[in-house]
Write the structure tokens for this entry.
Amino acid sequence: MKKTFFCIDAHTCGNPVRLVAGGGPLLQGQSMMERRLHFLAEYDWIRKGLMFEPRGHDMMSGSILYSPVDPANDMGVLYIETSGCLPMCGHGTIGTVTIAVEEGLIVPKQAGKLRLETPAGLVLIEYAQEGKKVTSVKLTNVKSFLAAEDITVECPDLGTLSMDVAYGGNFYAIIDPQPNFKGLEHYSAGQLISWSRILRQRINDHYTFVHPEDKNINGLSHVQWTGSVLDSLSTARNAVFYGDKAIDRSPCGTGTSARMAQWYAKGKLKKGDRFVHESIIGSKFIGTIEDEVPNAFGDGKPAIVPGIEGWAMVTGYNTIIIDDDDPYAHGFQV
Ligand code: PYC
């Protein structure tokens, strides 16, 4: 049997977004998280086929659009990535909104605004347009918070590293420059990737991270290395590891949210500040603190509602076939 998927490809500040506009499965569930669980149980072959080689690559990331569960909202989004189905993806959201609006896949209830259901929760969107072109997308993300401080983990080659863990839609280990780590600019992407894989495993072997409001969001999935900025007007720079072999080419929306929550908890950032975040290739997101709220642990510590603004460009239309006769129908990784 052959299955055909009508995809529109884009990139958000350099990182790929493949939106499945036709061919995605019908999903059951009373929330995007429930629909995500249904997809993972029955249709994960679609993610693997569209994200991994030979149809995708190590950094491939995408989404499938659904009608919203709550009719007050505009759409539901399922994120598909080489890493699995993330609860939330910032660069994926910016790309998905840009494609959906430019290509007429959605009709917003209110001009320039959208209410998006994601597995991690409701995400509000404001976008700007020049003619048909979407020139920027700002998302107001889910509540983000610092989850752990100063945990230490042994890293091959580097030795003991100290790091914080923060949540911004996914759980991130954030590794700042310190005696055993000089900053991301001193190492190759290949080195950061191989250390990240081992660190993520070691962290998950020794620590448990579960979202206090949804146990389906659990485990540390990303490692965020930080370093010096390329542009003196930027606030900070990162290199975010995801999947098994990827470094985000964008500054990573959920990673930027996590890092702003970390800075906020440490008194380095306050409501009203602009947080200009650079990626490994120098592309930028503008972060803001939209609100200060109690975190969901009930421990009296604060959390933030982050705003993340960026841009995306559509790169092409892509009709992709997954043929059961193909030995690589469900992709491969080397
Ligand atoms: O932008 O949130 C993000 C993201 C997650 C993984 C890759 N990008």
User: Anything to note?
Assistant: Helices lie at 32-42, 44-51, 90-102, 189-206, 253-265. The first helix runs from residue 32 to 42. The pocket of pyrrole-2-carboxylate is lined by residues 61, 86, 89-91, 242, 248, 250, 252-255 (CB under 6 Å). The mean pLDDT is 97.
